[in-house]
Amino acid sequence: xxxxxxxxxxxxxxxxxxxxxxxxxxxxxxxxxxxxxxxxxxxxxxxxxxxxxxxxxxxxxxxxxxxxxxxxxxxxxxxxxxxxxxxxxxxxxxxxxxxxxxxxxxxxxxxxxxxxxxxxxxxxxxxxxxxxxxxxxxxxxxxxxxxxxxxxxxxxxxxxxxxxxxxxxxxxxxxxxxxxxxxxxxxxxxxxxxxxxxxxxxxxxxxxxxxxxxxxxxxxxxxxxxxxxxxxxxxxxxxxxxxxxxxxxxxxxxxxxxxxxxxxxxxxxxxxxxxxxxxxxxxxxxxxxxxxxxxxxxxxxxxxxxxxxxxxxxxxxxxxxxxxxxxxxxxxxxxxxxxxxxxxxxxxxxxxxxxxxxxxxxxxxxxxxxxxxxxxxxxxxxxxxxxxxxxxxxxxxxxxxxxxxxxxxxxxxxxxxxxxxxxxxxxxxxxxxxxxxxxxxxxxxxxxxxxxxxxxxxxxxxxxxxxxxxxxxxxxxxxxxxxxxxxxxxxxxxxxxxxxxxxxxxxxxxxxxxxxxxxxxxxxxx
Length: 526
Hints:
- Residues 142-412 form the GCVT N-terminal domain.
- Keywords: Oxidoreductase.
- One of its GO terms (molecular function) is oxidoreductase activity.
- Residues 433-518 form the Aminomethyltransferase C-terminal domain.
- Residues 45-127 form the SoxA A3 domain.
- The chain has 14 helices and 21 strands.
- With 526 residues, it is of the alpha+beta class.
- The chain has three domains: 40-108, BFD-like [2Fe-2S]-binding domain (Arc Repressor Mutant, subunit A); 131-422, Probable tRNA modification gtpase trme, domain 1 (Gyrase A, domain 2); 429-526, Elongation Factor Tu (Ef-tu), domain 3.
- Strands 12-13-14-11-5-15 form a six-stranded mixed sheet, with helices on both faces. Strands 17-18-19-16-21-20 form a six-stranded antiparallel sheet.
- Helix 2 (56-64) crosses helix 4 and helix 8 (172-185) packs across helix 13 (374-383).
- The radius of gyration is 35 Å and the shape is elongated.
């Protein structure tokens, strides 16, 4: 077939471009209010700031009231103070102000624009806080060891702590029971590195701590420890922990794991805002040291096998501390107990934490050493009737409610919270106070359960007379134990309370002493 001939290019005829004459226009006139010359009633409905409902009449009133500075007008009217930071309103609003002041706009000026006046991305605001790093997770020096040995993790503030260590196919509950019994019968290791550690130092440090704690810390001898309570200004219990006197003007304050940053900020707040002329310096050294609790009847044998320090009862009595070397590691050994057993808490430099932990495991193998987690820690302390901040406290509880009046000095003129605790509703004898609770059938009361009373209130709900603050199965005692706040609880020993369960039925529990195990403290003082 004959090939198709290429198409010829199309050529359009040349033409002249159209011409037009521009209309004469005067310079654009700035119009900030429509209609111009609107009367007062209309100006009171002419909106400038659509978020804060600022009207033309508001800005004109500000000018008449003498707020001639744009920054003053902004605060008087809230013009441009909404989330758009004036993006939609400020130019119009400032022009209205200039007109009301008979000034040119440049002479009146503008306010300071803040983000997000100039838009930013959500990514810039969030930064790296996304996914697993939404908040930076804090890990102890022994974290990887725990992870490799069956740790079931529990969030404690930003820390991750082992709840328990599972072995084989056992449940978490069985793991906890095994760990508790091993501490009671042999020796357990607890990673206590998350415990808050705050150094308080200076000529006025003792005076400062006497104001901060309900007890007296300034008289604490060097080398000894003392349990202390901190309250807020209203008198409510905020934190507790053991304080150690390091030297003439240095103390080390232990806080709850989740409270170190909060308590350090609390200290600095009072130092910087109220007692700014006191010579006191604080440092949060929580992450500078690993801390290992060696707990149980074989604890001393384990440390003696490591060697290097005399940890006998005579050389290191209960509630004292000593510096030295254990198994070649630099160590500060505190003779304190949160379990009621013979116990030592050893602080070592964080860089040596894991090595020391593994050395303890090796030395304690013949004594039945076993790591234990936070839940076993809770059971152990509940068996001894020790309180836990956040369990027995909720921001409405004072030390006197918990039977901790002995930790409040009768000699000091003042401390933070003293006047708050003197208010009538906090001295009321009908407050709920801490007791032990023992179920009649040995079961475990649901945590947080409410004890009901006779009658109903104005809303038709049953009256209440207490609540459970901590509840566990005690493998040591073979039954359920609990602590709770009960109306005049210590005066009602032996009474039986009724705790309704969700879904029907109830649990009956007798009010008993909160110390379920070794009330005399013989086990921890050996």
